[in-house]
Every structure is written in C-alpha cells, then in structure tokens.
Amino acid sequence: MSQTIRHPEILDIARRDGKVTVEHLAERLGVTLQTIRRDLSELADAGKLERVHGGAVLPSGTVNIAYEERRRLNAEGKTAMAKACAACIPEDCAIFLNIGTSTEAVATELLHHRNLLVVTNNMNVANILTRNPDCEVIVTGGALRQSDGGLTGDITTAAIRQFKFDIGVIGCSAIDADGDILDFDLREVGVSQTILNQSRRKMLMADHTKFKRKAPARIGSLSDIDVFFTDAAVSEGLHDLCAGWRTDIRVSRPADDAD
C-alpha cells in the first residue's frame, strides 16, 4: 500500500478512535513498524497528528491531551531540557515549579540540589521532591485537578502572592508564531501569570511539540521570559523576536539526537 493511500487511512482511523498505535496500524495496513513510525512522523511534521508513546493522537485544539499521554510524549526531549534548566538553578535559593510534565522533569533533576525552598501547585512535583532531604517543599493549596495533580484557583494565586521567588519555572500548552505563550485552562493561566509576577528570574519549559499545537488562553509572551528552554531550534522569525526581547533561548537536544 502506497504512502498516498496510507496517510488518509491513518487520519481516518485517528479521527474515529482519537488515537492510533504503531502496532495496530502495521497489522491493519500490512507494512512494517518502521514504515508506520515514518508515516506518523511525517503526519506530525505536517501538523495533522501529535506523536505520543507508541502511536499518535489528533492535534489539540481546545482540549488538552490526557496527562499520561503528555507524560510520555517526547520524554527524552523533556529530560534534556530539564537537565539544562536544573543546571541554571543554584543551591540556596527559592523557586516555584508549576503544573506540567516538563516541570516534573525539572523536579527530578533537582534531587541532589541542596538548601532549596520549592513552592509548587503540582502534587507530582511535591511527591518527587520528598526524596531530597535538603529541599523544603511548600504546596500552595487550591482546587485539585484530579487528572494531573494540579492545584488552581483563587486559593492558589493568593498563596503564591505571599512569596518572592528567586526563580519561577513554568510550562505551557502551546507557543504561537508571534511568541505568545498559551494554555487551555483559564484558572491555570491566572496561576502562571502570578508566578511570573512574583519571580525575579523567569524560566519557561516548552519542547518542540508546543510549536505545533494551539490553545485558546494567553499566559503572556516570550518577551516576559528570561530563559526559554526547548529541545529543538525555533523558527528564524521567533529567534529574531527573542533576540530583540533579550530572551535567552537554550536548546538541549536528547542524547540520541546530539551531534
């Protein structure tokens, strides 16, 4: 079966089921696993699908993909970014880590830092950092989002305003071509904006998949960010915008992709 026939059929299955897997497609279409992986990568590059562990899902529009899928999506890239971010966080400082699988990866890379005060609205981050005896962890409180352990709402923002952080680390759901930082949940957007307002140094974690997605709510702009960590080169236009804003872009590719 040719690629021109496979691609439309893969998209039809994805629209029907919401997700496709490499093994199921290979068996259904009578081709190798490598061929399907290549097909899914090409469809993802075209913005028609989003790669997840073992397959792909339809691109997000107004609804975020499930937490477990987000956690597995581009895990290697997030780890590379997290290592770079953690290397920029000194010991003996106060930081905020917000909701997101990328910030959870940063928490893992902070397990050997000493004398940290970490405030978070992410129950997963708090659980990770319990393994670091030299880290004091404060959880903001708020309305628990059971899907991913996030805390949001007025209680959360009120708690954050009690602090002034040396560093605030946030994630997002999407980045627009003009540098706008986007998310799906308006309550989460309010929390992220408060984190930025209360942080002396502002860091953003966003891997390359965020440039292929759209989300309706605006957190702010890359012009508000001091250091932007990602895992692939950004477009020339966005690079030029960040240069004008003096936003430092740090690209950290997974070890397998490094030259």
UniProtKB/TrEMBL annotation:
Any GO molecular function: DNA-binding transcription factor activity
Record Pfam families: DeoRC (PF00455), HTH_DeoR (PF08220)
Residues annotated as domain HTH deoR-type: 3-58
Domain of life (superkingdom): Bacteria
Keyword field: Repressor, Transcription, Transcription regulation
Stored SUPFAM superfamilies: NagB/RpiA/CoA transferase-like (SSF100950), Winged helix' DNA-binding domain (SSF46785)
Family matches, as Gene3D superfamilies: Winged helix-like DNA-binding domain superfamily/Winged helix DNA-binding domain (1.10.10.10)
Entry protein name: Transcriptional regulator, DeoR family
